[in-house]
Amino acid sequence: MSQGEPDEAPPHFRTPADYRDAARDPETDVRTFRHLARSPYPFVWQELAANPSTPARVLDELCSNRDSAWNDGRLLRLLAEHPNADREVLLKVLAELEARLRTSTTRPYAAVLALAARRELRPEELRHLAALPGASPRMRTGLRRRLGERQ
Description:
single chain, mainly alpha, 9 helices, 58% helix
């Protein structure tokens, strides 16, 4: 446990719906958010990434969660859009998007465009995504447009 958090056992949830409800709740405490980030349910990770109360350090933990191409792409988009995602989180999302555009058959275009709208990252940190093998012409156009809107 980090300093300042009580050394208590994590909450016990009986059903997947209990996990989901806690992940959605803006009143959930940080300790529970961290517990939920380690849950086996990708829909819980996505609820955490959609909850505006989720702190950056929990978002950071979510960056390493993997399930399926569709779920992972949605999670990356939600992380890129999250108001509490700091530069560290966004750089982790960027690294994951780079890896996917280099090697995967999945195309996380929505996450790329969401990341391009974030001013915490410089345009030159994002432009190279357009040159990666998995980048489609439509993604390249959208990336250029989003980066151009920032100027």
